[in-house]
Write a structure and sequence with these properties.
The structure holds 2 protein chains of 2 kinds.
Chain A lengths: L2 E3 L3 E5 L4 E8 L6 E6 L6 E6 L3 E5 L2 E6 L4 E6 L8 E8 L7 E3 L3 E6 L1
Parallel strand pairs in A: 2-11
Antiparallel strand pairs in A: 1-3, 3-8, 4-5, 4-9, 6-7, 7-8, 9-10, 9-11
Chain B lengths: L4 E3 L2 E4 L5 E6 L6 E7 L6 E7 L2 E4 L8 E4 L6 E5 L8 E8 L5 E3 L3 E5 L1
Parallel strand pairs in B: 2-11
Antiparallel strand pairs in B: 1-3, 3-8, 4-5, 4-9, 5-6, 7-8, 9-10, 9-11
Classes of the chains: A mainly beta, B mainly beta.
Chain lengths: ~110, ~110
């Protein structure tokens, strides 16, 4: 079967660094997304990784290891507004590029 | 910045009634998705269009849900009759190449 695993909840302190892990088992791989979703709102795009390595975008970085079926999202200099759910999604095999979604990690940033 | 437009944002309907959601993707995006998201869960794909053709509707409850994208641009998702368990957020998303998928603001449905 196809599966994406993420921790359900995490807590961190304002100004700190947090790493949210995602492991996947899918039939085929055509890329991995990270999305941020605030309560009651739609997901917003954070990053897309298709090759191994680290992609940095300001305070957010995303890492991918295809051989290990593993990715992480790194958030630096945490702010209160970073409190949200972080969704990992993998594009599986096939021409329709079907997205397989994790259940999301709920991050609470405390002062 | 171009956005995916959805309407209505909020809809309350009685069970057994019909309800429809509309989506206008970002101009030029050939791929359009309808997702359903229940609180605390990831989005669940209902239907995926490539231009006007359905490429995946395996999770669409076809006895009550229908979706169309007649001219390959905007799309409508219909539920008839609505059931209590249909209460959720309905998300439309679009993509040009599949490398980035952009979501609309979502349509919240409450069935009472």
């Amino acid at each position: 079967g196809q599966n994406i695993d993420q921790p359900t909840e995490m807590t961190a302190t304002e100004g700190a660094i947090v790493q949210i892990n995602c492991t996947y088992q899918t039939s085929g791989f055509n890329g991995l997304f990270w999305y941020q979703q605030h309560a009651g709102e739609a997901p917003t795009f954070l990053s897309y990784n298709v090759l191994d390595g680290l992609e940095e975008k300001g305070r957010f970085s995303s890492f991918l290891s295809r051989s290990k079926g593993y990715s992480y999202l790194l958030l630096k200099e945490l702010q209160m507004k970073d409190s949200a759910s972080y969704l990992c999604a993998v594009i599986g095999a096939g021409n329709n590029r079907k997205l397989i979604w994790g259940l999301g990690t709920s991050l609470a940033v405390n002062p | 910045e171009a956005e995916v437009a959805q309407s209505p944002r909020y809809k309350i309907t009685e069970k057994s009634q019909a309800v429809a959601f509309w989506c206008d993707p970002i101009s030029g995006h050939a791929t359009l998705y309808w997702y359903r998201q229940i609180l605390g869960q990831g989005p669940e794909l209902l239907v995926q269009f490539q231009d006007e053709s359905v490429v995946d509707d395996s999770q669409l409850p076809k006895d009550r849900f229908s979706a169309e994208r007649l001219k390959g641009v905007d799309s409508t998702l219909k539920i008839q009759p609505a059931e209590l368990g249909d209460s959720a957020m309905y998300l439309c998303a679009s993509s040009y190449s599949g490398n980035t998928i952009y979501f609309g603001e979502g349509s919240w449905l409450t069935v009472v």
